[in-house]
Design brief:
With 241 residues, the protein is mostly helical. Helix content is 85%, strand content 0%. The termini are far apart.
Length: 241
């Protein structure tokens, strides 16, 4: 007699439910990391120790979410031996949460700098590039938001748009660097704070890279093509494999 295996059907439904929950966990983690980045930059610009401490206290939760999703993705792959598209999603889930955790780590570093500013480190260099810090924070959180949203909605077009915005962030970082180095040459008193400010700017640029990497994972899930190295290969004039 024909008919589907009820046990197999139940197992498939359980896998689909677990994969859906995994996606929701990633979206929740993404929201937390976006808040961490925004709050860290706000703490830095305002010299607000309370907000900086809040960011630092929430770092543990970011790490816990990354470990949970990684374990769950491995469990799903080991137990269910999923089909190709679902296998890509489970693998991408683990990679995406690593990118989010690293973005959260950059926010933590900015928050630590903000705490030092709030307790006496000179704020002059920060204020000198405040416009850049604010704009780069808006760019990075926007890229992160759209990258996570593209995963949630399985939207390859949105993911591609995130990748394209990375060059705008790089240009903003370069302009900020020129301005702050000009300041450093004019006044050596703020050398330590200037270096810390450069690291904060670089941290935001790295967060944009993490958002781009998340978008590339969404494209991997959608198409099965690993696009992480295609741009580098094209620029080098080497054939893509």
């Amino acid at each position: 007699m024909g008919g589907s295996d009820p046990v197999e059907g139940h197992t498939a439904k359980a896998f689909d439910a677990a994969l859906s929950d995994l996606r929701l966990q990633i979206v929740g983690m993404g929201g937390l990391v976006i808040d961490q980045v925004s709050a860290a930059v706000r703490a830095l610009l305002d010299g607000d120790a309370t907000i900086a401490d809040l960011v630092l206290s929430r770092e543990k939760k970011v790490n816990e979410l990354e470990r949970f999703v990684d374990r769950e993705a491995f469990r799903l792959i080991a137990l269910h031996q999923p089909m190709a598209s679902d296998l890509r999603m489970a693998k991408a889930a683990s990679r995406i949460t690593v990118e989010l955790e690293r973005a959260g780590d950059e926010a933590k570093k900015i928050a630590k700098f903000a705490a030092r500013v709030a307790t006496g480190e000179p704020q002059g260099p920060v204020l000198a590039v405040a416009r850049f810090l604010r704009h780069m924070a808006e760019l990075t959180t926007g890229m992160l938001r759209d990258a996570v949203r593209s995963l949630d909605e399985s939207n390859a077009e949105m993911a591609s748009a995130v990748r394209a915005r990375d060059s705008e962030l790089d240009d903003e970082f370069a302009a900020a660097l020129r301005q702050i180095l000009t300041l450093a040459m004019q006044d050596a008193r703020f050398l330590g704070a200037t270096i810390d400010t450069v690291f904060a700017l670089k941290g935001l640029e790295r967060i944009g890279d993490h958002a781009k990497n998340i978008a590339e994972q969404v494209l991997f899930v959608a198409s099965g093509e690993d696009v992480r190295h295609t741009k580098k290969a094209a620029e080098a004039g080497t054939p893509e494999k």
